[in-house]
């Protein structure tokens, strides 16, 4: 795992990778073939940073190659990577040839301010209840909170597309309680619209049956 002031390769993507999240990637550019090849050989990690509208975030998540799904004759890869540690980007190192080589950067990993602190139980219960309700309204037959060893906030955000700006805020937050409160506010805002859509769908089905 990288430590403070390590230098690693960087992969800019139009999405945020969260700690513990499994992300499929299709590797086809020469520079990223090189990056992934080096990580596979060394067992090392690379950094994933959100890139949108020509701007790259300064905080991201390290990623390790978890599985190679396909390895094609021309060097293209379909892989699964796993989010590991959050980091803040320091100095950015541009490659001499951006077509064949990749960005690098000095990074410093970070965690929550009190990484051992656990949010109040009532906050976790409320978050879980809202998530199950939202999943039910979205058509999930047996809605449940995703299991795993990682923090609840990241497990929930990896399971539902809350949008990249929110995912970046969750990534940057250094408090699990704060992240859960943010998810609670977002889900409370989303649920009424999902309930209305569900009612309309039921009304349409009812009309179609002649009721």
Structural notes for this entry:
By secondary structure, this protein is an alpha+beta fold. The chain has 2 domains: 6-110, Roll (Archaeosine Trna-guanine Transglycosylase, Chain: A, domain 4); 121-208, Methane Monooxygenase Hydroxylase, Chain G, domain 1, CATH 1.20.58. It contains 5 helices and 7 strands; from the N terminus they run ββαβββββαααα. The protein has helices at residues 30-42, 121-137, 152-159, 164-172, 176-208; strands spanning 6-13, 22-27, 46-52, 55-56, 59-71, 77-93, 104-110. The chain has a 5-stranded mixed barrel.
Question: How would the blueprint of this fold be written?
Answer:
Blueprint: E1 6-13, E2 22-27, H1 30-42, E3 46-52, E4 55-56, E5 59-71, E6 77-93, E7 104-110, H2 121-137, H3 152-159, H4 164-172, H5 176-208
Parallel strand pairs: 1-3
Antiparallel strand pairs: 1-7, 2-6, 3-4, 3-5, 5-6, 6-7
Helix pairs in contact: 2-5
What attributes characterize this protein structure?
single chain, 211 residues, Archaeosine Trna-guanine Transglycosylase, Chain: A, domain 4, Methane Monooxygenase Hydroxylase, Chain G, domain 1, 2 domains, 5-stranded mixed barrel, 5 helices, 7 strands, globular
Number of strands: 7
Q: Largest sheet, order of strands side by side?
A: 1-3-5-6-7
The CATH architecture name of the largest domain reads Roll
SS class: alpha+beta
Shape: globular
Count of helical regions: 5
Proportion of β residues? 25-35%
Question: Topology as H/E string?
Answer: EEHEEEEEHHHH
Cα separation of the termini: 62 Å
């Amino acid at each position: 795992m990288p430590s403070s002031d390590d230098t690693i390769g960087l992969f800019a993507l139009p999405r945020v990778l969260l700690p513990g999240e499994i992300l499929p990637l299709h590797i086809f550019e020469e520079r990223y073939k090189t990056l992934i090849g080096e990580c596979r050989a060394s067992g090392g990690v690379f950094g994933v940073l959100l890139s949108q509208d020509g701007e790259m975030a300064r905080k991201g998540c390290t990623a390790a190659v978890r599985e190679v799904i396909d390895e094609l004759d021309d060097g293209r890869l379909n892989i699964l990577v796993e989010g590991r540690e959050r980091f803040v980007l320091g100095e950015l190192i541009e490659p001499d040839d951006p077509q064949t080589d990749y960005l690098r950067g000095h990074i410093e990993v970070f965690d929550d301010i009190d990484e051992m602190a656990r949010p109040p139980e009532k906050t976790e219960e409320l978050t879980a209840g809202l998530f199950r309700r939202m999943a039910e309204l979205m058509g999930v037959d047996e809605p449940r909170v995703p299991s795993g060893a990682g923090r609840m906030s990241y497990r929930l955000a990896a399971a539902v597309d809350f949008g990249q700006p929110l995912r970046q805020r969750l990534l940057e937050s250094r408090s699990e309680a704060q992240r859960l409160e943010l998810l609670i506010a977002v889900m409370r805002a989303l649920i009424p619209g999902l309930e209305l859509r569900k009612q309309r769908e039921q009304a349409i089905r009812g009309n179609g049956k002649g009721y």
